[in-house]
Amino acid sequence: MKPFEKFDWKSFWGNSDGYTNDYAGKAPTDRNILDIEKATGYKLPESYIELIKHQNGGIPVNNVVTTGNLCVHLVGIYGIDKDKECSVCGDCGTEFWLEEWGYPAIGLVIADTISGGHDMIFLDYSECGPEGEPMVTLVDQEDDYSQEILADNFEEFICKIESDRVITDIEEFKQLDTEKQVLALNKLRNMKGSRAMIELLEQVEPSSYSDEVLGMLASAYNNIDQEDLAIQTLDLVRARS
């Protein structure tokens, strides 16, 4: 199956200011792609090639990727135009981050964040090898180069990029299924903290929530040293067993 079937590229890329010019390069040829693969020693994933053929790097309209543990604010996605500063082989490309900042040689820097270089996003070939399908991994320079997997592959990573808007309206929240409620709460907690999550969930009787949501609420209470409320919340889960 071709990557990004029916994906809306027109609404994906933003071109609101000149900053985009640091990232967006000329349309790549097949020869350009082969040259980059030869220069870096890594085979580019088909999904990444599909992206750069639509636009060779740039600033996405949406800018947030959320996992269970963190919320990452993107700046731009790297293309392969060597003349662009923010590209895979540009002046601020993979070689720069490895040599000047000490990042581990796990693959190719593919995107940057609002941290100003203190964490970077890689196509991570450490498990699959240079010819395989890389994961997408965040490497945190300030935390001794700790690594957090953002997606199992590049297509999944792109599809996970979303708006930085968070749900704070309880009626809107109640319309979501359990899986989407958990994702919304992860995003709210990571962006605004445990108290914001508690303020949302306390607007209705907690017993109306799923076990998964109650578990997150109990954890949030623990995070603000409200152990009694955490125990009461978990008791609601135990009472259902």
Explain what you see.
The N and C termini lie far apart (43 Å). The chain is built from nine helices and eight strands. Strand 7 (135-140) and strand 8 form a beta hairpin. The protein has two domains: 13-160, SMI1/KNR4-like (3-Layer(aba) Sandwich); 170-238. The strands form two sheets. A six-stranded antiparallel beta sheet has the order 3-4-5-6-7-8. It has a two-stranded antiparallel ribbon with strand order 1-2. The radius of gyration is 21 Å and the shape is elongated. It is α+β, with helices and mostly antiparallel strands and 241 residues long. The protein has helices spanning 30-40, 46-54, 94-101, 154-160, 170-174, 178-192, 194-201, 211-223, 227-238; strands at residues 13-14, 59-60, 64-66, 71-77, 107-113, 119-124, 135-140, 146-151.
**Average residue-wise pLDDT:** 94
Numbering strands along the chain, what is their spatial order in the largest sheet?
Answer: 3-4-5-6-7-8
What's the CATH class label of the largest domain?
A: Alpha Beta
Strand content: 15-25%
The Rg value, from CA coordinates, equals 21 Å
Give me the CATH fold name of the largest domain. SMI1/KNR4-like
Share in helix: 25-40%
- What sequence of helices (H) and strands (E) makes up the elements? EHHEEEHEEEEHHHHHH
Tell me the structural class. Answer: alpha+beta
Which spans have pLDDT < 50 for at least 5 consecutive residues? Answer: none
- Described by the principal axes of the CA atoms, the overall outline is elongated
What are the salient characteristics of this protein?
alpha+beta, single chain, about 240 residues, SMI1/KNR4-like, elongated
